[in-house]
């Protein structure tokens, strides 16, 4: 058995093409326990996601987690599942289509598609399909604004593993992060201000909670930049919104297990604010550019319950950027920045250009 994948048929004279691949975390195929078990097994088996000695973690994962968590997670997914499928899948697919359209309007001729790091369509399947179509230049865009080894780096791992098995490798580039990109921050600002135009600006007894996905604190101690990049995103956004320090708080959600994670935690903060008499909370999750279980169920539903049950009066979740025009523009700007130097512009026939120029001169003479 060959260590390399079979190469697609080659036809001399076939032009090489360029592709952009948006990569998000992943999603089960259905809101069912069997589908969640498959998804969680792949996700939680990644050593970058869970940095526990493999033999010990194998026992915990297969003996406890995969027997208890799939059913509970499936019930949560069922509350946010869309007619077209998982919210993360639906929004990521729409973003890819809109990005392709906008880049096409800007004169780029390339393929834009999407993949999931865990689940389907998988990164190896998407890359193999692009290669079979003639793509020799591929830009990978992990849809994580803030870099983390457990998210962004795993995308590089999957692409590298595929390259190791590929005889005729395409040229590849990777976007590392965009936590402080002007377009991304402008899209977040626009989204918050649009919300305030409908609900009203924050009062003296109201707060904006900027919630990011959590990671074990050990990741920061080991040199992961995620915490710092989250802090910078939150600070820059608050400055754009002209918020005073007491009007907002950066927090971290989705804590799992008993180890210490990045703090302050989102759920306890919401509970504390409710007991302290904070009237209204607006919540934004800048680390998610597409709505998913962690935003729609954990923040929009569980977070609301935590705050209101503790005594809060008004709670609003501000949706992720999803298909927002300003975000798609920022995404196109980001792609163009990293595509620089690659031939992506639509080819122009010199003879046709000369003919058009001649016609323009004649029309000018007549005028």
From TrEMBL:
Main location: cytoplasm
Reaction catalysis annotation: Fe-coproporphyrin III + 2 H(+) = coproporphyrin III + Fe(2+); heme b + 2 H(+) = protoporphyrin IX + Fe(2+)
Gene3D superfamilies: 3.40.50.1400
Alphabetical list of InterPro entries matching this protein: Ferrochelatase (IPR001015), Ferrochelatase_AS (IPR019772), Ferrochelatase_C (IPR033644), Ferrochelatase_N (IPR033659)
Binding site for Fe(2+): 213, 294
Pfam family, one: Ferrochelatase
Pathway: Porphyrin-containing compound metabolism; protoheme biosynthesis; protoheme from protoporphyrin-IX: step 1/1
EC number assigned by the record: 4.98.1.1
Biological process according to GO: cell division
Gene Ontology molecular function: lyase activity
Top-level taxon of the source organism: Bacteria
Cellular compartment(s): Cytoplasm
UniProtKB keywords: Cell cycle, Cell division, Cytoplasm, Heme biosynthesis, Iron, Lyase, Metal-binding, Porphyrin biosynthesis
CDD domains registered for this protein in UniProt: Ferrochelatase_C, Ferrochelatase_N
Free-text function comment from the UniProt entry: Catalyzes the ferrous insertion into protoporphyrin IX.
Family note: Belongs to the ferrochelatase family.
HAMAP family reported in the protein's UniProt record: Ferrochelatase (MF_00323)
Record protein name field: Ferrochelatase
Organism of origin: Dechloromonas hankyongensis
Name of the gene: hemH
């Amino acid at each position: 058995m060959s260590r390399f994948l079979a190469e697609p048929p080659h036809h001399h004279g076939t032009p090489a093409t360029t592709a952009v691949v948006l990569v998000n975390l992943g999603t089960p195929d259905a809101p069912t326990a069997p589908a969640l078990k498959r998804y969680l097994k792949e996700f939680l088996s990644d050593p970058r996601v869970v940095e526990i000695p493999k033999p010990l973690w194998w026992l915990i994962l297969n003996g406890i987690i995969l027997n208890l968590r799939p059913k509970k997670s499936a019930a949560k997914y069922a509350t946010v599942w869309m007619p077209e499928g998982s919210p993360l899948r639906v929004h990521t697919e729409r973003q890819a289509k809109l990005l392709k359209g906008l880049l096409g309007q800007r004169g780029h001729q390339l393929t834009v598609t999407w993949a999931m790091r865990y689940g389907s369509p998988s990164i190896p399947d998407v890359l193999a399909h692009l290669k079979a179509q003639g793509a020799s230049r591929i830009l990978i865009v992990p849809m994580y604004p803030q870099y983390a080894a457990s998210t962004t780096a795993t995308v590089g791992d999957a692409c590298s593993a595929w390259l190791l098995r590929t005889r005729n490798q395409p040229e590849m580039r990777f976007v590392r992060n965009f936590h402080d990109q002007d377009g991304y921050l402008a899209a977040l600002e626009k989204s918050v201000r649009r919300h305030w135009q409908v609900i009203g600006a924050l009062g003296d007894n109201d707060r904006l909670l900027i919630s990011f996905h959590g990671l074990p604190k050990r990741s920061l101690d080991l040199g992961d930049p995620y915490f710092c990049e989250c802090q910078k995103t939150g600070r820059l956004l608050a400055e754009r919104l002209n918020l005073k320090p007491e009007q907002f708080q950066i927090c971290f959600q989705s804590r799992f297990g008993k180890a210490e994670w990045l703090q302050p935690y989102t759920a306890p903060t919401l509970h504390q604010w409710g007991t302290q008499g904070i009237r209204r909370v607006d919540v934004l999750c800048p680390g998610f550019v597409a709505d998913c279980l962690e935003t729609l169920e954990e923040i929009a539903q569980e977070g609301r319950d935590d705050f209101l049950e503790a005594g809060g009066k008004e709670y609003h979740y501000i949706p992720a950027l999803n298909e927002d025009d300003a975000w798609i523009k920022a995404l196109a700007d980001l792609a163009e920045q990293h595509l620089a130097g690659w031939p992506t512009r639509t080819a122009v026939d010199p003879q046709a250009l000369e003919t058009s120029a001649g016609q323009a001169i004649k029309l000018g003479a007549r005028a």
